[in-house]
């Protein structure tokens, strides 16, 4: 008998749990007819002019590698979008096109981190930041976004968490999972904090065009010393999740490193998807406006339903997520989410997937259809009663 000795695998990746949202997704996928309120995926089709442009582009033979940073023609259009929407003055060589917002953010971490560097992350926050750090060798340090403070961070509290190893402060506004839009004055204070402590500010603005109320301010519009890295995506604004196109904007030094990371992990985003993204930027805005209006209407209806049931936590000003308080269930948020999907065929994301602060809550995605939202919230409220502690 031969003894096989197989080498060990990456311990930091092994120790990592799968995203808590995925755990619910995996159950929901085995249940035909399940109401899916757990994923942030627009239920609208990609606008047809975008699809048609991609088809025409593929037919014309645009099926080769592009440059690693992305097509220059797309990056030039992104320059114009950044100026018009975000008031950021960028050059095409400061932009990298990645596989969705996630591709750009992950490449940015890899581009700036040395092993052991600490990264300040929002709690509750998008779970993927933490997952990326496991292989980008960063150390996650959570800062709280407390419900009683409207899910806004306390600048002094973040300041107290900064150590000589802190390299990056990550902010996400409009926020997943809270839907909070940080007021401009807070963005200014957070940027000043990054300047004072000489750290990078990674501003995840993947929901920048999904705003119901308030004003979205991009730190890179006024802080131009090279510390701000801004991330965007086509996924949410244009209902293009499966096309996998996003972009990250950073000064030349960081951008060049990001390009090297992308060069080595994906070569480039599919050429056809990049052409689809160009059509999105060139095309009419009416469908984007219609989607934002639909999310706003859903927000109002669903917030009313949750309020009536006494479990509304937040009334989001942007993105497309609502948080519901499930602390009255004896199960705890994670078990409640599993129980809800198994027993009532409704998927929601447990607050535990986003850190510790929202562990009494579940996240409901407003990107699902009106009918699914109404029915799903009804079943959720019923199940809360059935599992009351
Ligand atoms: N950032 C946040 C906060 C998100 O919620 C998401 C997706 O859910 C992304 C970035 C990345 O989106 P994508 O990679 O689909 O473009």
Keywords, separated by commas or semicolons:
2 domains; binds pyridoxal-5'-phosphate; three-stranded antiparallel beta sheet; alpha/beta; Aspartate Aminotransferase, domain 2; 13 helices; single chain
Topology (elements, then pairings):
Blueprint: H1 11-15, H2 20-28, E1 35-36, H3 48-59, H4 72-86, E2 95-98, H5 100-112, E3 118-123, H6 128-136, E4 139-144, H7 155-161, E5 166-172, H8 184-196, E6 200-204, E7 228-233, E8 246-249, H9 252-265, H10 271-282, H11 286-308, E9 321-325, H12 333-344, E10 346-347, E11 349-350, E12 361-365, H13 370-386
Parallel strand pairs: 1-10, 3-4, 3-5, 5-6, 6-7
Antiparallel strand pairs: 2-8, 7-8, 9-12, 11-12
Helix pairs in contact: 2-12, 3-10, 4-10, 5-6, 5-9, 11-13
The chain binds pyridoxal-5'-phosphate (PLP).
The site of pyridoxal-5'-phosphate has 13 residues, from α5.
Please, could you describe this protein's structure?
The longest helix is centred in the last third of the chain and has 23 residues, at 286-308. The radius of gyration is 21 Å and the shape is globular. Strand 3, helix 6 (128-136) and strand 4 (139-144) form a beta-alpha-beta unit. The chain has 2 domains: 13-40 and 286-386, Aspartate Aminotransferase, domain 1 (Alpha-Beta Complex); 49-282, Aspartate Aminotransferase, domain 2 (3-Layer(aba) Sandwich), CATH 3.40.640.10. The protein is an alpha/beta fold and 389 residues long. Helix 3 packs across helix 10 (271-282) and helix 5 crosses helix 9. Helix content is 41%, strand content 14%. The termini are far apart. The chain has a 7-stranded mixed β-sheet, with helices on both faces. It has a 3-stranded antiparallel β-sheet with strand order 9-12-11. It has 13 helices and 12 strands. The structure holds pyridoxal-5'-phosphate (PLP). Pyridoxal-5'-phosphate is lined by residues 40, 100-102, 126, 172, 176, 204, 206, 233, 235, 241, 246.
């Amino acid at each position: 008998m031969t003894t096989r000795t197989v080498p060990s695998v990456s311990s930091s990746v092994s120790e990592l749990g799968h995203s808590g949202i995925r755990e619910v997704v995996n159950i929901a996928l085995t249940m035909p007819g399940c109401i899916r309120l757990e994923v942030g995926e627009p239920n609208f089709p990609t606008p047809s002019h975008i699809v048609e442009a991609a088809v025409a582009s593929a037919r014309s033979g645009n099926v080769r590698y592009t440059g690693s940073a992305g097509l220059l023609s797309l990056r030039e259009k992104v320059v114009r979008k950044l100026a018009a929407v975000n008031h950021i003055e960028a050059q095409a060589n400061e932009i990298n096109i990645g596989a969705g917002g996630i591709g750009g953010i992950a490449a940015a971490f890899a581009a700036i981190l040395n092993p052991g560097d600490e990264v300040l992350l929002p709690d509750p926050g998008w779970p993927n930041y933490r997952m990326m750090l496991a292989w980008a060798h960063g150390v996650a340090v959570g800062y709280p976004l407390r419900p009683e403070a409207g899910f806004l961070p306390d600048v002094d509290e973040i300041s107290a968490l900064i150590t000589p190893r802190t390299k990056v402060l990550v902010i996400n506004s409009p926020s997943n999972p809270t839907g909070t839009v940080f007021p401009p004055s807070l963005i200014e204070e957070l940027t000043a904090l990054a300047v004072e402590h000489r750290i990078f500010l990674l501003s995840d603005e993947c929901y920048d065009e999904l705003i119901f109320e308030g004003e979205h301010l991009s730190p890179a519009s006024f802080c131009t010393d090279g510390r701000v890295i801004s991330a965007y995506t086509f996924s949410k604004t244009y209902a293009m999740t499966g096309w996998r196109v996003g972009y990250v904007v950073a000064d030349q030094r960081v951008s060049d490193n990001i390009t090297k990371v992308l060069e080595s992990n994906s070569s480039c985003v599919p050429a056809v998807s990049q052409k689809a993204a160009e059509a999105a930027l060139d095309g009419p805005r009416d469908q984007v406006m219609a989607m934002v209006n639909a999310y706003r209407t859903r927000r109002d209806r669903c917030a009313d339903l949750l309020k009536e049931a006494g479990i509304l936590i937040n009334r989001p000003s942007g993105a497309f997520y609502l948080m519901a308080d499930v602390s009255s269930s004896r199960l705890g948020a994670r078990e409640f989410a599993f129980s809800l999907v198994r027993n009532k065929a409704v998927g929601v994301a447990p607050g535990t997937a986003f850190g510790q602060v929202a562990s009494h809550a579940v996240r409901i995605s407003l990107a699902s259809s009106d009918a699914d939202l109404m029915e799903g919230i009804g079943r959720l409220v019923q199940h809360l009663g059935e599992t009351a502690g």
